[in-house]
Design a protein that fits this description.
By secondary structure, this protein is of the alpha/beta class. It has one domain: Uracil-DNA glycosylase-like domain (Uracil-DNA Glycosylase, subunit E, 3-Layer(aba) Sandwich). It is built from nine helices and eight strands. The strands form two sheets. The chain has a six-stranded mixed beta sheet with strand order 1-3-2-6-8-7, with helices on both faces. The protein has a two-stranded antiparallel sheet with strand order 4-5. A hairpin with a 7-residue loop joins strand 7 and strand 8. The longest helix is centred in the C-terminal third of the chain and has 20 residues. It is globular, with a radius of gyration of 16 Å. The N and C termini lie far apart (36 Å). Bound molecules: uracil (URA) and iron/sulfur cluster (SF4). Uracil binds next to helix 4.
């Protein structure tokens, strides 16, 4: 951990709200009353997950964005569109994957009427991790994909550069030790202004998704 300013809160986080041994439906319902960190206060609602409760592949994003916060579903905004296209190109059926986030409430800053996405702090990632661990235990995917640094931080419990680990076959740090592939967050591709960079970024993203799909046999 980086600092012990809020150590007690971090040690517990979502834990008291996570029902032991629960399936996805029960977890989703329980997450509505999570008070594991302060992010629930300003968000519209918790955004839990979508996809089959027994999916073989689990994709983990950062946190819900503006659209997701309003709709209550992960990856329904611009990043979700990039993800959907890349999955299609990698030959992965989007309907067959379980989509979730490392942090379940939208963190933002208000600027006038706009809500500007703000990266979750390590304390939020740590607080929310019990939900993700419970999801892995419930879904028991054959492979997990971390979309970006926040998901990788949660799933590996360490801070790494994406460039150092992307595309390798690693393992989640929870007791399941599930095969894990780390890649970029789809929204990082939206931020690339140069067309060639964007195309190269998209290809590398699809290649990482293919690496994960290959683990399904
Ligand atoms: N970005 C994420 O990381 N997750 C979402 O659900 C939407 C955008
Ligand atoms: Fe609970 Fe996670 Fe929401 Fe924090 S972000 S209140 S830990 S569900």
């Amino acid at each position: 951990m980086n600092g012990d300013d809020d150590g007690a809160a971090e040690d517990q986080g979502a834990q008291p709200w996570v029902p032991a041994g629960a399936g996805v439906g029960k977890l989703r319902a329980a997450a509505e009353s999570c008070r594991g960190c302060e992010l629930w206060q300003d968000a519209t609602q918790v955004v839990f997950s979508r996809g089959p409760a027994r999916a073989r592949m689990m994709l983990v994003g950062e946190q819900p964005g503006d659209r997701e916060d309003l709709e209550g579903e992960p990856f329904v905004g611009p990043a979700g569109r990039v993800l959907q296209e890349a999955l299609g190109e990698a030959g992965i059926d989007e309907e067959a994957v379980y989509l979730t986030n490392a942090v379940k409430h939208f963190r933002f800053e208000r600027r006038g009427k706009r809500r500007i996405h703000e990266k979750p702090a390590v304390s939020h990632i740590v607080a929310c991790r019990p939900w993700l661990e419970a999801e892995i235990a419930a879904v028991r995917p054959a492979v997990v994909v971390a979309l970006g640094a926040t998901a990788a931080r949660s799933l590996r419990e360490r801070t790494e550069r994406i460039g150092d680990v992307r595309g390798q076959v690693l393992e989640t740090s929870d007791p399941s030790g599930t095969p894990l592939v780390v890649t970029v967050h789809p929204s990082s591709l939206l931020r690339l202004r140069d067309a060639d960079d964007r195309e190269a970024g998209r290809r590398a993203f699809v290649a990482d998704l293919r690496t994960a799909a290959a683990l399904l046999g």
